[in-house]
Amino acid sequence: MASVLILAMCAFPTSFETLWQEATFCGVVLIITASLIFWQKRSLKQFGYALLIGSTLVGGIWSFVLASVTSRNYLICAGVPGAGADLVRRADESYHTLLVFEAVVGATCIMTLILVLISVFSLYFAYRRREALILMTD
């Protein structure tokens, strides 16, 4: 039974490589979003837009730092017959580290989606307001 458990510790649906790529993607998306908001000159007039730019920039930096830290980790596999107790312990720690990083990267991706949606809707409604003001003055 114990050898089956040890062998099972080598098959994971996610790897650290996948996680750092996801975190990097989230960082790129957030930096692009912050740039788009910043380039809209009217966006800096309100505190909400400045807060949105700050949040997306902080989120982008967080994603890149997370990607960097995640890329330095590797998964230890103890799925060999006769694996020592130290190797099994390190494999267990590696597995728990993978689960923690998976949860953090997942939360970062969800926050990325939320910030992008808020940004898109904010810019869309600001554009609509501006168009309505132009129509009213004509």
Give a short summary of the structure.
The chain crosses the membrane at residues 20-39, 46-65, 103-127. It contains four helices and no strands.
Protein topology:
Layout: H1 2-8, H2 16-39, H3 47-71, H4 85-137
What does this structure look like?
- This protein is mainly alpha-helical.
- The chain has one domain (26-75, 83-135).
- Helices cover 79% and strands 0% of the residues.
- It contains four helices and no strands.
- The chain has helices at 2-8, 16-39, 47-71, 85-137.
- The termini are far apart.
- Mean pLDDT is 81; it is low at 1-8.
- The chain crosses the membrane at residues 20-39, 46-65, 103-127.
- Keywords: Membrane, Transmembrane, Transmembrane helix.
Low-confidence stretches: 1-8
Radius of gyration: 22 Å
This entry's quaternary arrangement is: single chain
Class of secondary structure makeup: mainly alpha
Number of domains: 1
Number of helices: 4
Averaging pLDDT over every residue, what do you get?
81
Number of strands: 0
* Beta-strand percent range: under 5%
Query: Largest sheet, if any?
Result: none
Give the proportion of residues in helices. over 70%
Overall shape? rod-shaped
**End-to-end distance:** 80 Å
Order of helices and strands: HHHH
Could you name the key traits of this structure?
single chain; 138 residues; mainly alpha; 79% helix; rod-shaped; disordered N terminus
